[in-house]
Design goal:
Elements lengths: L8 E4 L4 H10 L7 E5 L5 E5 L7 E5 L6 H17 L4 E6 L18 H12 L3 E5 L14 E4 L2 H11 L5 E4 L5 H10 L4 E8 L6 E7 L6 E5 L2 E2 L3 H12 L4 E5 L2 E2 L5 H6 L4 E7 L13 E4 L2 H13 L10
Parallel strand pairs: 1-4, 4-5, 5-6, 6-7, 8-9, 8-11, 11-13, 12-14, 13-15, 15-16
Antiparallel strand pairs: 2-3, 9-10
Length: 318
C-alpha cells in the first residue's frame, strides 16, 4: 500500500521540468524516470521507466503554452500510471489554465474548466493539487479531493521584507477584491479597487474609476494572474492618474504570452513585477524588473503531507 513507507514518486511532463526538479530537491529525493515525447506523426508517447505498483504517484504538469498539448500529455501520463497499477495518482497542476472558463456567461459557450476536470478523472486522477485558482468553484467540478494551495504567504513575506512604508493594496477589479483584501490585511495596508469594463471577448479592458485613495502612496497592484497584461496596464494608467507614487505589481501566475513581459515592465510607472514560478518564464522574458518567487517548497511540503496523511491546511495556519 502507498503511505508513509518510502518516498512519493514524482514524475514531470514537459511543461515545467525545472519546478519538478526543485520540488524533488526540497524533498531530498530523485525525480521519477519517465519518457514523454511526440512521434513524427504528432502522437504523444509516454513510458514509465520504473516500478510504480501500489506506489503514491504525483504527476506535475502546468497548463501552459502549448496548453492543449500539455493537457494531453498529463492525461496520457495519468493513464500510464493507472495501467502500471499505481496505488494513488495525484495530478499536480500549479496553473490550471481553463479555470477562467468556469461558467456560461454567454449563450452557446462551453464550461471548459468542467470538461478538463472530467477528462482528468476519467484518465485516472485520484486527487488534485492546484495553486490559486482563478475561480474557486472549479474545485467543485471534481469528484475527487482537491487541494487548492495559495502562494499568498510567500508573496506576503516578500513584501513584508521589502518594507515599502505605507503602501495601498489595489485590486485590479471587483472579482479579485476578496483575495486582495486578505493580502492587504496580511501586509497591514488599506485596500482600493479599480473598477473596470472588459470590451468583448478580446483582451481589451477599460478602467473606469478607483474606489479608495492612492494619492501620494506607493501601490501594490494585486491580481491572481497576468496574461497579456491588458487589465494590469489599464489599472496602472488609472491609479497613476490618481497620484500613486510608485507601483509594484504582484500575481501568482505570470502567463505573459508573446511580448507581454516587455510591455508590462517597459511601463515607466511599474517599479517591479513579482510573480511565482507556477508558469515557467523563458530567458528572453526575464529582466531586472521581474522578481520570481519559487513555490517549490510549498508544493513539496504539500506532497509530503499528503503522502504521510497529514494536514495540508495546517500549512496556511499562522
Amino acid at each position: 500500500m502507498y503511505g508513509v513507507n518510502g518516498n512519493p514518486v514524482i514524475f514531470a511532463g514537459n511543461s515545467h521540468p525545472q519546478l519538478a526538479e526543485d520540488i524533488c530537491q526540497y524533498l531530498s529525493q530523485d525525480i521519477g524516470q519517465i519518457e514523454v515525447f511526440k512521434f513524427s506523426n504528432d502522437n504523444t508517447f509516454v513510458r514509465i521507466l520504473e516500478n510504480v505498483r501500489q506506489k503514491d504517484v504525483f504527476i506535475l504538469q502546468s497548463d501552459v503554452e502549448p496548453v492543449n498539448d500539455n493537457i494531453m500529455e498529463l492525461l496520457i501520463m495519468i493513464d500510464a500510471a493507472k495501467r502500471a497499477s499505481a496505488g494513488r495518482i495525484t495530478a499536480v497542476v500549479p496553473y490550471y489554465s481553463y479555470a477562467r472558463t468556469d461558467k456560461k456567461d454567454q449563450p452557446r459557450v462551453p464550461i471548459t474548466g468542467r470538461l478538463i476536470a472530467d477528462l482528468l478523472e476519467t484518465a485516472g486522477a485520484d486527487r488534485m493539487i492546484m495553486v490559486d485558482l482563478h475561480a474557486g468553484q472549479v474545485q467543485g467540478f471534481f469528484h475527487v479531493p482537491v487541494d487548492e494551495l495559495t502562494a499568498m504567504p510567500r508573496l506576503v513575506d516578500y513584501f513584508t521584507e521589502r518594507d515599502l512604508g505605507d503602501p495601498v493594496v489595489v485590486a485590479t477589479d471587483m472579482g479579485i477584491s476578496k483575495k486582495a483584501r486578505s493580502f492587504a490585511d496580511a501586509v497591514s495596508a488599506p485596500l482600493a479597487i479599480v473598477e473596470k469594463r472588459r470590451l468583448g471577448n478580446e483582451d481589451r479592458v477599460e478602467s473606469l474609476n478607483v474606489i479608495g485613495d492612492v494619492k501620494d502612496q506607493p501601490v501594490i497592484l494585486f491580481d491572481d494572474e497576468i496574461s497579456t497584461g491588458a487589465t494590469m496596464l489599464s489599472a496602472v494608467e488609472t491609479i497613476t492618474q490618481r497620484g500613486a507614487t510608485e507601483i509594484y505589481v504582484v500575481a501568482t501566475h505570470g502567463v505573459l504570452p508573446g511580448d507581454a513581459s516587455a510591455r508590462i515592465t517597459s511601463n515607466s510607472h511599474i517599479k517591479e513585477l513579482v510573480i511565482t514560478d507556477t508558469v515557467p518564464l523563458s530567458g528572453d522574458k526575464v529582466n531586472s524588473k521581474i522578481k520570481v518567487i519559487s513555490i517549490a517548497p510549498l508544493l513539496g511540503e504539500a506532497i509530503r503531507r499528503i503522502h504521510e496523511g497529514r494536514s495540508v491546511g495546517a500549512l496556511f495556519t499562522r
